[in-house]
Amino acid sequence: MALGRWPLLALAAACRAKRLTFAGQTLLREQQDAFFHDLVRLDASAHAHVFDVGANSGQFVEEFMWRLRKHCLRVRRRGAPPPPPGVHCGRRVHLYMVEPQQQFHAALLRLAQKWNGTLVPRAAWREDGAVRFAAAETYNSQRARIVGHAAGRRGVRERLVPAVDLGALLLRTVRRGDVAFFKLDIEGGEYELLPHLVVSGALCRAQHLLLEWHLRGIPAAERLAGVAMKLALPMLLARGCPGRTPNATLLNEEFRESNFNRPIPGLIEEAARSVGNRTVRGDLGRVGIEYEFRVNVLRSPQGRAPIQFTLVNGA
């Protein structure tokens, strides 16, 4: 197998811990509660699924499963016998942790045994096979970051890791009528993987989506399309997934260090098309950013409006 044939995913240690804002923590709890609500009301023949794609050390899924267990204890009938392993709120819950990095496998296997789950020791990708990882030789963090095409850089070690077609895995395991919680944190690979999951219909099988975006993990020339993908995803799911439940949820996590202060070529030009001849002022609330955007529409020397014309691909 030729090494150069496979896409390159490069890893490096994260600079500092990621922390959700208080509002973000509240939204995350509300999303998990929505999944728990669906689980309790699930048809007796249906199953529930939890996917942690990019599980790393398993911290997220451990906290998630403990919250699920506490919730089910609260709603369990008094005097009912303890549930068998893997059963929560009277329903079978299938847990899948997808993580290719070997340094996390021992901890994830312990979690799989504890929660009757399954470790998928592969990289989430568009097809089965392998992907090429470039990991920093000094890497010792519990968090990894895709840093772009790092081939040939000093201090970077390349290796092939097995990959799994995540769309096929979802379609194979989650049946229509099941309920699924799907968390995706693959450090920039989401821009490659999500189109495949949408087109294949696999993402329609997950009612509750928690997606972490990493704008700095892709080349600057692709960032405008990446932002458009994030903004278009709710509409694509709502209109492209027949029978999607009204209480389906989608949360976008955007940590400042991964998404802010990243140039997005073409973004200002697109905004200028819509603002018109005026000044727009505002702020981004808790983010702490105030902005002022001014556009002067060019007119002819006689003051007449520009001639009407049609653009083809923006030209």
From TrEMBL:
Domain Methyltransferase FkbM intervals: 52-205
Cleaved signal peptide residues: 1-17
Superkingdom, natural source: Eukaryota
Protein name per the record: Methyltransferase FkbM domain-containing protein
Pfam families: Methyltransf_21 (PF05050)
Species in which this protein is naturally found: Prymnesium parvum
Keywords: Signal
InterPro entries noted in UniProt: FkbM_mtfrase (IPR006342), SAM-dependent_MTases_sf (IPR029063)
